[in-house]
Predict the structure.
Amino acid sequence: MLGVDPGTRATGYGLVEGGRPGRLAHRLVECGVVRPRADDLPGRLVEIHTAALEIIDRLEPACVAIESPFHGRNARTALVLGHARGVLVLAAELRGLTVYEYAPREVKKRVVGTGAASKEQVGFMVKHHLRLGEPPRPADAADGCAVALCHLLGGPLR
């Protein structure tokens, strides 16, 4: 399961292998952050899309979980984030992968136990679920792992 936390400045990802939902038999294969270097949004989107295709081709995930848009106070930020999500969903679709979407509160609730968890709490619980010595760094990588774990720990909340 490839989990992705989209962003135009930093897109976190984590490939997590897992057992059955609800169990702690999960293993981190790889995590990281894509940091586009382009100054303009179209250039960053191309870099994110290219990197996503490379990650998918190299890691060969079975499916992709991505954080869905949130309702923030800043409409422009939400719109720009939507562009990043779009190129990531496109990359997954081009490779024939099923895409699952999770709201940020769903991810936090499933992984931490509360939808209002802090980044530090998310990192700590990712460390716990994956039996790591330290939380993945930077926090964007831990967030990508959290999205993957959300799916592996039982999928969407009802």
